[in-house]
Amino acid sequence: MLISLVVPCYNEEESLPYFYDETTKVIDSMGCDCEMIFVNDGSSDGTLDELKKLAEKDSRVKYLSFSRNFGKESAMYAGFCNSHGDYTAVMDADLQDPPSLLPQMVEKLESGEYDSVATRRYTREGEPPVRSWFARRFYGLMNKISDTDIVDGARDFRLMTRQMVEAIVAMGEYNRFSKGIFGWVGFRTYWLPYENVERVAGQTKWSFWKLTKYAIGGIINFSQAPLYIASAFGLIMTLVAVFAIIFVVVRKLIFGDPVAGWASLVCIILFIGGIQLFCMGIMGQYLSRTYMETKRRPHYIVSQTNMDDAEKIR
Ligand code: UDP
Ligand code: MG
């Protein structure tokens, strides 16, 4: 049995040695074959050198090094496209995804009852409260407006069968939102809760702004609800306008009212103008993604690797 570990790394030179030590300890104790596919996502520090050092020491270490930073989603995709294992796992390089969970994850899949074991943190300790609050709202909203199940606190850390990995590789969309993709492809998933672990070294790569963009991307990718909301706005405003016209005409006929209410008119124009721009913005979000999708640009470009059969551009 071969296990593939896909590890996206962006400026992780400090955490990589810890990650390697911890993970190999667990893998060795499990007594199965393993390939560790480290994807260097255009790091500007010594991550690549660190990976080369590890690869020299241990032939199980494979690396794919991107020509620039393509983002974690692309890094995971590259790892999946180049993995060979019967089981494949995605893990962060900062040990926030404890390798000690791997044996029980493998056991679950071996039982044949599940196709994937996913992990979920049941605490968000050590995270800024504002970030947790927004994360909760996001998951609440997402589950209301999307058909795809997205679990609160779900990590990307999961172990999957070959069948499921192939399904994910087949989803070649450019705007990737893995939490949605994992749910979309289906299969039987076991959820393994664990306590949040803080990163072992280095800094988080996710600023609040980056996370917000990621969340909006998730919504646009897995829900059409914003488009319906925009349509609903349009419909409601039209109805309001019809009633307003009737009201104004009737009042003129009965009371012969002279022109008045400049202030309220300005308010109405601004309000409607605002809503129009808002709805156009929503449409624009979908359109821009469609635009990127139609260009069919590669997800990633590998500039250096020690894998012979690597798909360098996909
Ligand atoms: N990562 C990446 N490309 C990026 C940002 C992050 O490959 O553009 C990797 C990073 O090296 C780490 C994982 O994605 O292995 C999760 O990132 P991080 O720990 O910074 O996120 P957090 O755990 O704080 O959500
Ligand atoms: Mg992390």
Short key terms for the protein model shown above:
single chain; 314 residues; alpha/beta; eight-stranded mixed beta sheet; 8 strands; binds uridine-5'-diphosphate; binds magnesium ion
Structural commentary:
The chain is α/β, with parallel strands linked by helices and 314 residues long. It is 50% helix and 16% strand. An eight-stranded mixed sheet has the order 7-5-6-4-1-2-3-8, sandwiched between helices. The longest helix is centred in the C-terminal third of the chain and has 34 residues, at 262-295. The protein starts with a strand and ends in a 9-residue tail after the last strand. Bound molecules: uridine-5'-diphosphate (UDP) and magnesium ion. Magnesium ion is lined by residues 92, 94, 96, 199, 204.
What would you say about this model in short?
This protein has ten helices and eight strands. With 314 residues, the chain is of the alpha/beta class.
Envelope shape: elongated
Helix content: 40-55%
Number of distinct helices = 10
| Largest sheet report | 8 strands, mixed
Extended strand count = 8
Order of helices and strands: EHEHEHEHEHEHHEHHHE
What is the radius of gyration computed over CA atoms, rounded to a whole number of angstroms? 25 Å
Instruction: Report the β-strand fraction as a percent range.
Output: 15-25%
Runs in which pLDDT lies below 50 for 5 or more consecutive residues are none
Mean pLDDT: 89
Spatial arrangement of strands, main beta sheet: 7-5-6-4-1-2-3-8
- Helix-and-strand structural type: alpha/beta
User: What is the straight-line distance between the termini?
Assistant: 27 Å
| Distinct bound molecules | uridine-5'-diphosphate, magnesium ion
